[in-house]
Design brief:
By secondary structure, the protein is of the alpha+beta class. Helices cover about 45% and strands about 15% of the residues. It holds the Pfam family ATP-gua_Ptrans.
Length: about 120
């Protein structure tokens, strides 16, 4: 988990530089507008690839636990794929109603909890 917020700071700097040249579409209520409605709001989907074999032994249990921390479980290569070698792509589920920083923090904190749960099994 070390480095997630360093990457976030680099991303913010890059996005701010781009936005100086190319304005992004933004709606006061919906946030940033994209081609994918699920990304309305901050548009931030922060994810990590993680191997959680004990939790993953029961995919529905993994999804249930992840849901408690507002996390979304995907296969290794993203949406509509299966996990390869027990590695899942886990990301923040929420993008509306919170800041970009809070979206990344929620993902980071949720992953830390998944690791604790995995270690306790």
């Amino acid at each position: 988990m070390v480095g997630v917020f360093q990457v976030y700071r680099r991303l913010v700097t890059a996005v701010n530089d781009i936005e100086k040249r190319i304005p992004f579409s933004h709606h006061d209520r919906l946030g940033f507008l994209t081609f994918c409605p699920s990304n309305l709001g901050t548009t931030v989907r922060a994810s990590v690839h993680i191997k959680v074999p004990k939790l993953a032994a029961n995919r529905s249990k993994l999804e249930e636990v992840a849901g408690k921390f507002n996390l979304q479980v995907r296969g290794t290569r993203g949406e509509h794929t299966e996990a390869e070698g027990g590695v899942y792509d886990i990301s923040n589920k929420r993008r509306m109603g919170l800041t970009e920083y809070d979206a990344v923090k929620e993902m980071n904190d949720g992953i830390a909890e998944l690791i604790k749960i995995e270690s306790s099994l």
